[in-house]
Write a structure and sequence with these properties.
mainly alpha; globular
Length: about 180
């Protein structure tokens, strides 16, 4: 009798284990990702896309299609922001400059320093943590051919990070 009970318990337990190990034939659902924001260069969407609906469109536009979709709007916005704009310190006229900005990607130099803008020959090759990109962008918009025009408009007066950057990964200081 005891061996019959043990045998029934073993068979029952085996059945439970076997059924719990049964292969699950259901497929995992397909996951789709959607681009929600475009932020290659800081402030580009904020400054150059005036219409709220266009801001959302800009955020989800593939970079290779951005120039065709937004360059003329950027050009009109630059003319509205700085009616006297002719060329900037990089020598870029309105059309050329807005063509560069309308494709909002962050280029990376593989052969030289990574800098947002430091000189007329070293620009838009990436972005270092300490680069003052907003001042640089303001200079490119309002600074004229020398970078010194409209000095009241070429700086946000935020000249440094509030904490020192780390010397090893992740490089950013902790927020508190």
């Amino acid at each position: 009798m005891k061996s019959t009970i043990k045998l029934i318990a073993i068979i029952f337990t085996s059945g439970v284990l076997i059924s719990s190990c049964k292969k699950n034939d259901t497929m995992s659902p397909t996951v789709y990702y959607e681009q929600q924001d475009q932020m290659g260069r800081p402030g580009i969407n904020t400054v150059f896309v005036a219409d709220v609906a266009d801001k959302e469109t800009f955020n989800v536009t593939t970079p290779s299609l951005m120039g065709a979709a937004f360059q003329s709007k950027f050009q009109a916005r630059l003319s509205a922001l700085n009616p006297g704009y002719t060329v900037n310190v990089l020598g870029l006229d309105n059309t050329t400059f807005t063509s560069v900005l309308a494709t909002d990607v962050l280029n990376v130099s593989t052969t030289g320093p990574t800098k947002f803008f430091t000189s007329t020959t070293d620009y838009l090759t990436g972005r270092g943590l300490a680069d003052d990109v907003i001042d640089n962008e303001l200079t490119l918009i309002f600074g004229g051919s020398t970078g010194a025009s409209n000095p009241g408009l070429t700086s946000d007066h935020v000249n440094a990070n509030d904490k020192v950057f780390l010397t090893s990964f992740p490089y950013l200081a902790s927020p508190w």
